[in-house]
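job 3f2a | input accepted
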Amino acid sequence: MTNLLEKNEPYYLKIYSIIKEKIFNGTFQPGEKIIESQLSKEFKVSKSPVREAIRILENEGLIVVKNTRLYVYEASVKDIKEVYAFRAAIESYTTRYFTEFATDKDIEDLKNSLVQVEKLIEQEASNASIIEENIKFHRIILNKSGNEILIRHYKIINALINYYRNKNISGDQRPNEILKQHREIFNFINKRDSDNAEKRMIKHLKQDVEHLFEILDIDSSIDTII
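job 3f2a | predicted structure (226 res):
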């Protein structure tokens, strides 16, 4: 078996990245048991770097401990509501701030991220590539706020946010639907219409939740989420 690890990167970071990707792409299913010894054999390393990688994933919420055993994170209605309520609070503010204070260069950068997503969709690129560019759209808006405390707290649950993003892109037309929603947000930003830009961002997050509940087969009212 070929060694999956690059020599120029700490083993635990490479292992962390591989496990995280397997969680995101569904190779490791929600609720699946994680066994350190099996991972050690797969990566041809001792348990120490595997354990360190798992510790990071635990801190990010992607691996959970139940009765001393390790399992892949499994989304709950409560988690989804709390994460998206947090996002709505943060991103409604940052969208308004961006709309009012962004420079022409900032807006051009935001527009370019949409152009890049469109190209990736036309090229039938991987969902991972499209997700990364969609993340850039939100990151540009977030970082413009310059609020380090806000940005730091957003990063704390960033892994779970991206976990939901990877689930949320399921569906043949889903990348196009997300692009359409981002364009609508951008159009209000470009007009410096902060009220409607903020409202459209919140609506976009609500639509994300609706789609998540649908693909995760969760029967729940979303009236109180955002």
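job 3f2a | The chain has two domains: 11-72, 77-215.
job 3f2a | closed
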